[in-house]
Amino acid sequence: MGEPRTPYKVVVWSTGTVGRHAIKGIDAHPDLELVGVWVSNPAKDGKDAGELAELGRELGVLATTDSQALLDLRPDAIVHTAMTDDRVFEAIEDLIGFLEAGVNVTSSGPVLLQWPEHILPPELQERIDKAGERTGASLHVNGIDPGFANDVLPLVLTSLSQRIDEVRVMEICDYSTYYQPVVMGDLFGFGRPMDEPGFLWSPGILSMAWGSVVRQIAAGLGIVLDEPLTEEVDRRPAERDTASVSGDVKAGTMGAVRFQVIGKVAGVPRVVVEHITRTDPAQVPEWPSPPEGDGCYRVVIKGEPFMQCDFVHHGEHGDHNVSGMIVTAQRIVNAVPAVVESRGGLVTALDLPLVTGKGLVSTT
């Protein structure tokens, strides 16, 4: 660490549903300068970043498929937004490569790196730590869920507690407007026969994907959980045909799911992550629903006092899935200065100082 350097030179790695918002966020941030953009699609090679981000103007930064050319720019940080859900270990190799090149990284995945204890093979953790120690580069993986909605937000709320019996972090959302066919089809199994469950419902996968949430909250509270974590899944068929941007969901195919990953202490649930995911807001009305709109993140802290916080977001045009991509991007964009100035290696939300929207207040 040394004196803060601004603006920090940043490369955006991928321009999909999250990456194009990251470009917008970096362009708007007074302490960040976009110097490069990586794309996997040859059709995007050579296109201006402003066009890819749909800014309506050019930024003078051309996208490229040449990863080495971007590393040769010696950026201060890479904002990595590439899809990782279907290539977890390949993505980890990419991230380690950035650290070995001496480049700090904020990334939206793989989400297990939010808190990799009991999930990441020890040899991979060691490689990340050694790369960071050798080059001084830091890696921070975050977003909204896993991320802010179930690390910083609940842990800050617990600062108001006198006694904590259980911390429950929830996502309650309608995914019908969420465009991510791989996630919706292959991982969740939405729109597929009930006897053909998605990848997420195989034993142990939920703990790999969201166990980081449960264990990081536990670490923040200073408790040690029973291992392994407990998984519970309740899948329900759609009652009617429903339109979805990732593929329509026919009646009788999987249309909704409720799952929990439960961290217990001496057999008693103490930290729980719960997702209630629908493809039609009217599905399974007996399950919890958001207070308004199509989705929310909810934190429930049982104890003294009882506390519940509903975090609702939506874009300028009303869609919560678009704003979900924005808040995911902004969490890792706004964290760049803190991550660059951090110690080398993997840094978690517990390691970082308070990250704010400094410099982003509108002047018009």
TrEMBL record:
Official protein name in the record: Diacylglycerol kinase
Keyword Kinase: yes
Dihydrodipicolinate reductase N-terminal domain segment(s): 12-79
UniProt cross-references to CDD domains, sorted A to Z: nat-AmDH_N_like
Location of the 2,4-diaminopentanoate dehydrogenase C-terminal domain: 150-355
Superkingdom as given in the UniProt entry: Bacteria
Keyword Oxidoreductase attached: yes
Keywords: Kinase, NADP, Oxidoreductase, Transferase
Pfam hit, one: DapB_N
GO biological process: lysine biosynthetic process via diaminopimelate
Annotated SUPFAM superfamilies: NAD(P)-binding Rossmann-fold domains
Coiled coil (UniProt feature): none
Gene3D superfamilies (UniProt xref): NAD(P)-binding Rossmann-like Domain (3.40.50.720)
InterPro entries per the UniProt record, alphabetical: DAP_DH_C, DapB_N, NAD(P)-bd_dom_sf
One example GO MF annotation: 4-hydroxy-tetrahydrodipicolinate reductase
